[in-house]
Design brief:
single chain; about 120 residues; mainly beta; four-stranded antiparallel beta sheet
Length: about 120
């Protein structure tokens, strides 16, 4: 069974830092595009950042220069380092693994809440 499990969410003050982790099954870790999405219930879903199998990264404009996505192959774990967080970063963050075409298999974790507030 494919595993995609997030951890590391919580409450952080504006300007602070937080690191999210996503444990991914070894069988797909290096061959799927891995991504962080965030959702504000009833409002929007946003691609925060992703990393392709060849290591290319992409970021939403709203987080460029503040967030960093990375992979630790030895641990089959993906990370999202969040710095200088803002209240508008408050959301449920989901880790997703996507095979891309032609099969377009996708797996999603259960989500982890990040709240930015004093």
């Amino acid at each position: 069974q494919v595993k995609v499990v997030e951890s590391g969410g919580g409450l952080v003050q504006p300007g602070g830092s937080l690191r999210l982790s996503c444990a991914v099954s070894r069988g797909i870790f290096n061959i799927y595009t891995l991504a962080w999405y965030r959702e504000v219930p009833g409002i929007k879903r946003e691609l925060v950042a992703d990393v392709t199998p060849d290591g290319s990264t992409h970021y939403a404009d709203s987080v460029k220069g503040r967030f960093t996505i990375s992979k630790a192959s030895a641990e089959n774990t993906m990370y999202l380092e969040m710095n200088n967080v803002k209240p508008e970063d408050t959301a449920v963050y989901f880790c997703e693994a996507d095979s891309g075409p032609p099969n377009n298999f996708g797996y999603r974790g259960q989500g982890t809440q990040v709240t930015v507030s004093f």
